[in-house]
Amino acid sequence: MIPRTVFETTLRGFLSPIVPLLDDEGVTEVLINGPGEVFVERKGKLSKTELRFASEDKLLSALRVIAQFVGRPFDADHPILEGRLPDGSRVEALLPPIAPDGPSVAIRRFSKDRLTLGRLLEFGALTRDAAETLRVLIECKRNIVVAGGTGSGKTSLLNALSGLIPESERIVVLEDARELQLQREHVVQLEARPADARGKGQITIRDLFKATLRMRPDRIVLGEIRGGEALDLVQAMTSGHGGCLTTVHASYPIDAMNRLETMALMGGVELPLSALRAQLASAVDVVVQTARLRDGRRLVTHVTEIVGVDPHHGYRLKDLLLAQPCRQPDGSTRQVLEPTGVLPDCLPMIHAQGLDLPESILETARRSRGA
Fold it and tell me: CATH classification of 4-108, choosing from 3.40.50.720, 3.30.2130.10, 3.30.450.90, 3.60.21.10?
């Protein structure tokens, strides 16, 4: 086996045109649209660079080295590559003919410093009320789905939320390609594996789920729900495995529930829609919505409790905290996450465990009832 350090050195040589971007801590994404076009994202803003690969063959050679490093096929029969670089950056690459203008690559970079809720507070991504509310919900083993669009900070928030899990608990993580950097000691990382060039050896997220349930998990963390594994997660959530965390692509909390429903239907189990919705509403306790604003800032926009399902109107949701436009001293308007005055249905359970929500949230609710 070729030593990892040799791979790293070789790969840097093949990626030499973009190495300055990969070494820049301020870069969050590198996008390659064929050999002659490289874009970079900094602070949520995209800009075109003057960097380029000498030829399509040079770019293809770099991608083949990445494929060799992660042990995945990448050719005309397998034109999609998912993997990661030695530094942990996530890579998604597409080959012609599905990318007719030449190889297309997206490299998502993650900070080497573990992002904590404290750092997110400094960035203004959420408020102290929201952070304390999430701490209480996680300590009470509520099942939480982090929803948001591409680049909205879902993975970063999930990493930060993991720091609120008690140190005494065992966490099992399931991912297609390893991205999460959980901030706890007792973590078991499991990674799915695609089929090899002969179509053998595939290990899916659903396969990993079956193994996970016998691995004595206190918490199950699924990096991202993409398909039928949604049904497995729902069944785990409703069968005594509380405190699960996952992410899903969705623009609003209600969209997150509808997407979970659609993906659970892909699980191949014949289940009446009403029964599935009842299970989803019972399984998912809270949706934390993230968004990337026009100025590039990433923000938690909703902390929403799922309180049940109505046979005529679908899922019933309660917004506990909601981003509202707030005028700043300089006259500008800025989105700020604020309490809505609504208390969660799970408040008695929170109290039963000797915990409580922030006083400001309780006070807002008292004022709302008084009005």
Answer: 3.30.450.90
Where, residue-wise, is CATH 3.30.450.90 in the chain? 4-108
Q: d(Cα 11, Cα 18) in Å, to the nearest integer?
A: 11
Q: pLDDT by residue for the chain (371 residues), tens digit each?
A: 456 677 788 888 999 999 999 999 889 999 999 999 999 999 888 999 999 999 999 999 999 999 988 888 888 888 999 888 888 888 999 998 899 888 999 999 877 667 788 888 988 889 999 999 999 999 999 999 999 998 888 988 999 999 999 999 999 999 887 778 888 889 999 988 877 777 788 888 888 888 888 889 999 999 889 888 898 888 888 878 889 999 999 999 999 999 999 999 888 777 888 999 999 999 999 999 999 888 888 899 999 999 999 988 899 999 999 998 877 777 677 888 999 999 999 999 999 999 999 999 999 999 988 75
